[in-house]
Specification:
The complex is a heterotrimer. Chain A is α+β, with helices and mostly antiparallel strands. Chain A has helices at residues 2-17, 19-45, 48-56, 72-79, 139-145, 213-218, 240-253, 264-317, 322-356, 373-399, 403-408, 418-424, 429-439, 442-474, 480-515, 517-525, 530-567, 579-605, 609-614, and strands at 62-66, 84-100, 103-112, 123-127, 134-138, 152-155, 158-167, 207-212, 227-234, 260-263. Chain A is elongated. Chain B is α/β, with parallel strands linked by helices. Chain B has a six-stranded mixed beta sheet. In chain B, strands 2-1-4-5 form a four-stranded antiparallel beta sheet, with helices on one face. The chains are: A alpha+beta, B alpha/beta, C mainly alpha. Chain B: GO terms for molecular function: ATP binding; ATP hydrolysis activity; transmembrane transporter activity.
């Protein structure tokens, strides 16, 4: 017990002594865990809200519809088919043109009576149920229209008021909604309507409205313009797809007025398609961020360990075993990781509703997907694993040396890379110093290269995904709102990645500056100008950044894209961005790193010389 | 002393006779302000002629290291004037200071301050490289200097493989890399044992004989005793000055009880 | 010069006076220059009278000097004396009290500034140090004489350090009053 107390106290003391580093450490792990949380929440959200919506609205297992009243008899037959235990409807459906002050949309108006239907009772998010002259708008569509309760709109020229906003499980949210009526441009109802979604191009992503039956019928004088939709509940919901397949096969032989059928599984899949795309982006982003976090933590911890070797020697001198020493050193970072992991979870949980909440159209579920125990577990485990992975090598190195050696040697001696030193003698002074500064710490050099490579490969993927998004939008796979939303997710992940990479670059430079205090002071005492020294300290980051940027494109970005393509089975393979973009990325990376490192390097190059020299080395 | 006149270039002979290598007037350096103000260097006047070796002695904290850093342009004075070879150097820009350190001054430090990852010869050639000499010229000069300090066969050793005395000899060779008119040494024997001290003393003596102008701050009486002139420093100011040159007292025997 | 040194030099083998002088020179290096040539013979004669050594002047080869012709050897009493001397642990006492009292009395009577006395004394010691050091560096390394000179240098350094301590103390005293 006493030992645990000691370990804890020592760890907390040390953290408090270095607030800035601790804060940066927290930030790095938090960025990774927040993104990971979002990714995981979305993956749960992809399924869960639909299920909860289905439960709350008593959603149907199968939705059946016909394009004209002539098919009503077939619907009646279906209602009597084997396995059907309950039915709702049929309800009349009319295709109409909706007009608000903001523009015009194609809509499908479903006529409903009271709110007490046996199946598919749309859950009101705001306002009340349909009444005469009052419509209820599907939540995602309402968000896209930007209308709320009390707003007025026209349907085929007649005025209505928005009575409420609701969600349903019988239809994927806008803009994924499919046509209940065959949506043909000429208004001719489809005869078979086997797969309703295939007619999507005909009417542009219809929105869903609920009206009173009387209002629907009142909108048209032609009874044949009306279609009908019916909801069915099966004895075994899991067999819904089989039911659809069996009854469709029958229907395919008939000609006109044959109903189409949709299983709830199909609706689920359609509802969550977008969420899955976003999830791929977020999960990939979070893994990249985790890698980047490992790199920055490794730098931080490595730098601290060098300073701590004397402390380790003291601990050992007073009787600490290597195990205790390792525990003290590890405890610090594990504590930080847990705090950062929890903060990341909280941040992720707070931001998740922005992407998954009802009305955003992404999922349109009831409520936000909760953070499950498994999500929390995975995020915390990743946070701790990141910290431990980055901390282990330096901890082992620090805990291993003899007590006397640790007490005597305060600083990890720099490495000698003979050929680099020889080559650098031929270069101009700032480059000579930069190469030698960089070569003193090969491990940090590798981390710099790796960090930049990870970031650049992330940027390459983001560029490629952005281009893919635009292409898919042109192909009509996404509409503007969807593309914007996915673009936003992409943007946020890329932004976090860039921020972390930026913090990382500043970090590395500062660690280099601190590490080379003595070298800079000495070089200046021997006649290097402050400008040359600053240039050297920045150059020690910029040169590896250049290498990292190139490696980030190939193999980094190329491999990552290949992996994503292998995981995505939607057939839209992402390609490497064009050469000019890649060149801009490399040049931009070098420029940004140069700008970010300029200030710390300038500070480092101008530190007073005499103090650094007087400090015993 | 014949070597001395050879070393001085023809056109500067007048200068060397007239202008001291280093001239200091009213040099001050203070830290902090008000009650807590510390006067590290408090009104120092000093002239060092060509080929002269001057030692500044005093207890630790008397301001002698600060004085050296001020003279070498590693720190800025709070007041006073410094001329190096007739040129004012207090108040010149950082860049000009760097150039001055590169060509006009060689530093020797108590803790050697060699770069651990560079071999002896790479350490010695560094100032020449910083001064923009060609790699070949820098290497040749470095090899020659290492020969001079008796470490030619250790040119490719890392500092960690050298003894303390050898490291300081490498540092001294490095200080001479750009043939500076003035060498400033800060406790050059402070980290050395008695035998290594003798190694370094011999080297300083031979430098002195070759006409190198030297300023040594130290509290080691042994190296101070090699100087032509010895200045005692207390509380940031010079309090006593002695010329140590002159004939033998001839009474060494009395020091070991050989005479009564 | 202690008589016992001369006695101990004869413990190896009987020797002529000039041989003893040569051996002394070798051991003392430049310090041996200061040795008075007659000093060895005076000591030898004194020791012979005391019965600690015996002189044999049978060898009459080429030397004209009477003392130089003699070969000296230890008597049993002389051998006994040498053994006692080797076993002795006495050590020369540096006379610090005298200088210490000089500072105190000078300050008390206002005769002189103790710091000025200290400066003068330090100058003197540094001159000696410079001389001893020069002599030491002129000797080949690891020679007997270099070792002796190193001893002088180290003692002078110790004395200088004591002067430093005195200086600190007297500066403090002056500042306090």
């Amino acid at each position: 017990m006493g030992r645990i107390l000691l370990v804890g106290r020592l760890a907390v003391r040390d953290l408090r002594r270095r607030r800035l580093e601790t804060a940066l450490l927290l930030l790095a792990i938090m960025a990774a865990t927040t993104t990971l949380t979002l990714g995981l929440v979305l993956s749960e959200a992809a399924g869960d809200p639909y299920r909860s919506t289905r439960e709350a609205t008593n959603g149907p297992d199968v939705v059946a519809g016909v394009g004209r009243s002539a098919g009503l008899a077939r619907l009646e037959e279906l209602a009597g088919a084997d396995g059907v235990v309950e039915r709702g409807g049929p309800y009349p459906v009319l295709r109409a043109r909706l007009q608000t002050s903001g523009g015009a949309w194609d809509v499908q108006a479903v006529g409903r009576r009271g709110a007490d239907a046996p199946l598919d009772r749309p859950q009101l998010v705001r306002g009340g149920w349909v009444r005469e002259g009052g419509v209820v708008v599907e939540a995602a569509f309402a968000a896209a229209l930007d209308v709320g309760v009390g707003d007025r709109l026209t349907l085929d020229g007649e005025w209505f008021e928005v009575a409420g906003v609701a969600i349903t499980a019988a239809m994927p949210p806008y803009p994924e909604a499919f046509c209940l009526l065959a949506c043909r441009a000429d208004g001719e109802p489809a005869d078979t309507g086997a797969v309703a979604g295939s007619a999507r191009e005909a009417v542009r992503n219809p929105g869903l409205l609920w009206l009173t039956e009387a209002d629907v019928r009142g909108l048209t004088s032609d009874p044949d313009a009306l279609g009908y939709v019916m909801n069915l509940k099966l004895a075994d919901p899991d067999r819904a797809q089989a039911f659809v397949d069996a009854n469709l096969r029958m229907g395919a032989q008939g000609a006109k007025g044959v109903p189409y059928l949709l299983s709830w599984q199909y609706i689920l899949q359609e509802s969550t398609e977008l969420a899955q795309d976003a999830q791929v982006i977020l999960v990939f982003g979070s893994w990249l961020l985790a890698l980047l976090a490992v790199a920055s933590i490794a730098v931080l911890v490595g730098g601290r360990m060098a300073e701590q070797s004397r402390r380790v020697g003291l601990l050992k001198a007073v009787g600490g075993t290597p195990g205790l020493v390792a525990a003290v050193l590890l405890a610090e970072y594990v504590v930080v990781a847990i705090v950062a992991g929890a903060a990341g979870l909280a941040a992720g949980a707070l931001t998740a509703p922005l992407l998954t909440g009802p009305g955003t159209g992404l999922i349109g579920g009831a409520g936000t997907a909760p953070i499950t125990v498994s999500t929390a577990g995975v995020v915390l485990a990743v946070a701790v694993a990141v910290a431990v992975a980055a901390t282990c090598p330096p901890v082992v190195r620090a805990a291993r040396p003899g007590t006397l050696g640790a007490l005597a040697a305060s600083v990890r001696p720099p490495r000698r890379v003979g050929w680099l030193i020889a080559v650098s003698a031929r270069l101009p002074v700032p480059v000579l110093l930069a190469v030698r500064v960089a070569a003193r710490r090969p491990r940090r050099l590798a981390l710099t290269v790796a960090g930049i490579a990870i970031t650049v490969s992330g940027i390459v993927v983001a560029l490629s995904a952005g281009a893919g998004l635009a292409a898919q939008r042109l192909a009509g796979l996404y509409d503007a709102a969807q593309a914007a939303l996915l673009g936003q997710v992409l943007f946020i992940v890329t932004l976090i990645l860039l921020c972390l990479a930026g913090v990382n670059a500043v970090f590395l430079t500062w660690a280099t500056v601190l590490d080379n205090r003595h070298l800079s002071a000495l070089a200046r005492a021997l006649g290097a100008t402050p400008a040359a020294m600053s240039a050297a300290l920045a150059g020690a980051q910029v040169l590896p950044a250049l290498a990292g940027a190139v490696l980030g494109i190939f193999p980094g970005g190329a491999v990552l894209l290949a992996v994503i393509n292998a995981m995505n089975d939607n057939g839209n393979d992402a390609a490497l961005p064009p050469l000019w973009q890649l060149l801009v990325v490399v040049a931009g990376t070098v420029l940004v790193v140069a700008v970010l490192t300029a200030l710390p390097a300038r500070l480092g190059g101008r530190r007073p010389v005499s103090r650094a020299l007087q400090a015993e080395v | 002393m014949n070597d001395t006149t050879d070393d001085i270039a023809d056109e500067s002979t007048d200068d060397a006779a007239g202008t001291p290598v280093l001239r200091v007037r009213g040099l001050r350096k203070q830290y902090g302000a008000g009650e807590g103000m510390v006067r590290a260097v408090d009104g120092v006047d000093l002239d060092i002629g060509a080929a002269e070796t001057v030692a500044v002695m005093g207890p630790s904290g008397c301001g002698k290291s600060t004085l050296l850093h001020l003279l070498g342009g590693l720190e800025r004075p709070s007041g006073g004037q410094v001329w190096l070879q007739g040129r004012r150097i207090d108040g010149i820009g950082e860049k000009a200071l760097a150039r001055m350190r590169r060509t006009d001054i060689g530093f020797v430090f108590q803790s050697f301050h060699l770069m651990e990852e560079l071999t002896a010869v790479e350490n010695v050639e560094l100032p020449a490289l910083l001064a923009g000499r060609s790699p070949r010229a820098a290497r040749e000069r470095a090899a020659q200097l290492l020969e001079q300090v008796g470490l030619a066969e250790r040119a490719h050793f890392l500092p960690s493989a050298l003894s303390g005395g050898q490291r300081q000899r490498v540092a001294l060779a490095r200080a001479l890399s750009n043939e500076p008119p003035l060498v400033l040494a800060d406790e050059p024997t402070g980290n050395l044992d008695s035998a290594a001290t003798v190694e370094v003393l011999r080297l300083f003596e031979s430098l002195h004989r070759r006409g190198q102008t030297l300023l040594i701050v130290t509290h080691d009486a042994r190296i101070a005793a090699t100087a032509d002139r010895l200045i005692s420093m207390r509380d940031g100011a010079f309090v006593d000055e002695t010329r140590l040159g002159g004939g033998s007292t001839g009474r060494l025997g009395a020091l070991v009880g050989l005479e009564d | 010069m202690h008589q016992e040194v001369i006695l101990a030099m004869l413990a190896k083998e009987p020797s002529h006076g000039y041989q003893l002088r040569a051996r002394l020179r070798e051991a003392l290096g430049p310090l041996g220059e200061a040795l008075n040539a007659g000093h060895v013979y005076v000591t030898l004669t004194r020791l012979e009278k005391a019965g600690l050594l015996a002189a044999d002047d049978t060898d009459r080869s080429d030397r004209s000097d009477r003392s130089d012709r003699k070969v000296y050897a230890l008597t049993p009493a002389g051998q006994q004396r040498v053994a006692e001397w080797i076993a002795e642990v006495s050590w020369p006492k540096p006379d610090l009290a005298q200088f210490h009292l000089k500072l105190i009395t000078a300050a008390a009577a206002g005769l002189s500034d103790p710091l000025a006395i200290l400066d003068a004394q330090r100058r003197e010691l540094l001159r000696r140090l410079r001389e001893a050091q020069r002599a030491a560096m002129a000797e080949p390394a690891h020679s007997d004489a270099a070792l002796l000179l190193e001893g002088i240098v180290l003692r002078l350094q110790a004395d200088l350090r004591w002067l430093e301590a005195c200086e600190k103390n007297w500066t403090l005293r002056r500042n306090r009053s």
